[in-house]
Specification:
about 300 residues; mainly beta; Rieske Iron-sulfur Protein; Naphthalene 1,2-dioxygenase Alpha Subunit, Chain A, domain 1; 2 domains; seven-stranded antiparallel β-sheet; elongated
């Protein structure tokens, strides 16, 4: 019996990584949708953070990973023959060429992937042509707000199985059980939520969530809205009075059988930063429960 190969959606924005993972003058190699990608951030003359870029992590000369070379903050240097590439993917220098040699290096380039950085989230366009749309982003966030808590985990499954964990409420009372979350007897209650269409997905409209330890800590009378967007983005916006918490989750396929799941929290409540040392391992444990059931 043949098994169908999972379909990886192209020509769409994927969440690549948290912006904090790219320091000025540094690069990070990743595999996305089975393609080797080198992401980096340029460095300004005064050492500050420049722009994020993404190019194919293969030198077009001999196929060597560019990530094995070096990056001086402006150009990537191939480790094999020292060819240099700009963030645009254009080859800028070939050391072995001699003066007067008739060779046009502008014909040499490695693939460039369009990228955008919004609120500390780096998005990458996985398509052959230039994007005809902007990343989904999180339009309700203040422009200067950055994630306060981040957890990234590798799931041993296709993106389809990982996405189910984002939109399947039936597994929650059985899988996500801990002393801090649903630790009592399992009681299933009939619930009705109102849904509506939204760009590339749907939205569970604003409602009062079930009382949990997290919501009790926030105080007040919270209301939450949850949106889902292809290819695998879930955003939960919890509003408590004049403050908000955003729970951003994205699934990004490494290949057909591995998926990276990223969970980032944003908030406008200053004192919540005191809970980061405790909240981070709890976030990892919560994600791990989803991963373990798929192992």
């Amino acid at each position: 019996m043949s098994v169908a190969t999972p379909f990886l959606l192209k020509d769409i924005w994927y969440f690549a990584l948290p912006g904090n993972d790219l320091k000025p003058g540094k690069t990070k190699a990743k595999v996305l949708l089975g393609e080797p990608v080198l992401l980096g951030r340029t460095k300004t003359k005064d050492g500050g953070a420049g722009d994020v870029f993404a190019i194919r992590d293969i030198c077009p000369h001999r196929g060597v990973p560019l990530s094995e070379g070096s990056f001086d903050g402006q150009e990537v240097h191939c480790p094999y023959h020292g060819w240099r590439f700009a963030p645009s993917g254009q080859c800028t220098h070939i050391p072995s060429l001699v003066e007067g040699q008739d060779f046009d290096i502008t014909r040499i380039r490695t693939r460039r992937y369009p990228v955008r950085e919004q609120n500390g989230l780096v998005w990458i366009w996985m398509g052959k042509d230039e994007p005809d749309q902007e990343p989904p982003g999180m339009p309700e966030l203040p422009a200067d707000l950055r994630p306060s808590l981040t957890e990234v985990m590798l799931f041993p499954c296709s993106i389809d199985h990982a996405v189910i964990g984002l939109i399947d409420p039936g597994h929650v009372p059985f899988i996500h059980r801990s002393w801090y979350w649903r630790n009592g007897p399992i009681r299933l209650k009939e619930k009705a939520k109102e849904f509506g269409p939204s760009p590339y997905g749907f939205t569970m409209k604003r409602h009062k969530p079930a009382t949990t330890l997290l919501y009790r800590i926030l105080g007040g009378a919270p209301e939450t809205e949850i949106s889902f967007r292809l290819p695998g983005v879930r955003v939960e916006h919890v509003r408590v009075g004049r403050h908000s918490v955003w729970n951003f989750t994205a699934v990004t396929p490494i290949d057909e059988i591995r998926t990276e799941v990223s969970n980032l929290l944003f908030w406008t409540i200053p004192w919540l930063k005191l809970l980061v040392p405790v909240a981070k391992p709890l976030m990892g444990h919560f994600l791990g429960q989803d991963r373990d059931i798929l192992t």
